[in-house]
Amino acid sequence: MEDYVKPKKHLGQHFLTDQSVARAIVESLNPSTQNILEIGAGTGVLTRYILEKKTINFKIIEIDRESVSYLLKHFEGMENIVLEGDFLNYDLHSLFTESFSLIGNFPYNISNQILFKAYDYRQQINEVVGMFQKEVAERIAAKPGSKTYGILSVLLQAFYDIDYLFTVDEPVFNPPPKVKSGVIRLVRNSVEKLDCDEVLFKTLVKTAFNQRRKTLGNALKSMGAKEWPSEHADLLSKRAEQLSVSEFVLLTKVAEKTIPLD
What we know:
Elements: E1 15-16, H1 19-27, E2 35-39, H2 47-51, E3 57-62, H3 65-74, E4 82-84, E5 100-105, H4 111-120, E6 125-133, H5 134-141, H6 151-157, E7 160-168, E8 173-174, E9 181-188, H7 198-210, H8 216-219, H9 233-236, H10 245-258
Parallel strand pairs: 2-3, 2-5, 3-4, 5-6
Antiparallel strand pairs: 1-8, 6-9, 7-9
Helix pairs in contact: 7-10
């Protein structure tokens, strides 16, 4: 069984089989990165190219026991690299004391959760290179005014510069997914802290996009706002998808004085 890993639907596994695509993904990492965490290595299609980088500190988190056995059998010296477990439940501070890069062919069924976790660890994760469902990849990289611009677009673009790198077609996977995939790169920008309450910022962004058809003035009423200052009427007459990150920061600063914080 260790010589073959059966893709498991409940884990969202679609194993990449094209070596040129795998190499291109790994080569998209910053060449100087020394700490790398791979999520869901599967049969090691990315792993073999990561190992070529001679990275000082490389870890893999893999939830599939069959994949863990395969990796340990087919790659030398992996005993201290492969960790069996669920990335979403892992304390990443226990893996790295310094900043690190995150890479993977991320399972489509938990890709948003992976990105929300990257956001939570933004002070430590300085780079993310990964393959997502094309629609998700485009959403993360979308600019204000786009119909695909959403919650994760704003939260991640507040702290990362994001590039959509390339599209990957369905036939290069086993089993082939029903949709195309997209590879994106997130690189930490110079923003250490937003010029507003970051917890309120996240809440406000989520509230605004959860009612994205409404103007912000109406969408944010559920947050218990008092009367908004009239000088921000133009901002509040817009919909969430029309605001840039800096405008959401400005709106959060106004909200700090307008919304009762318990």
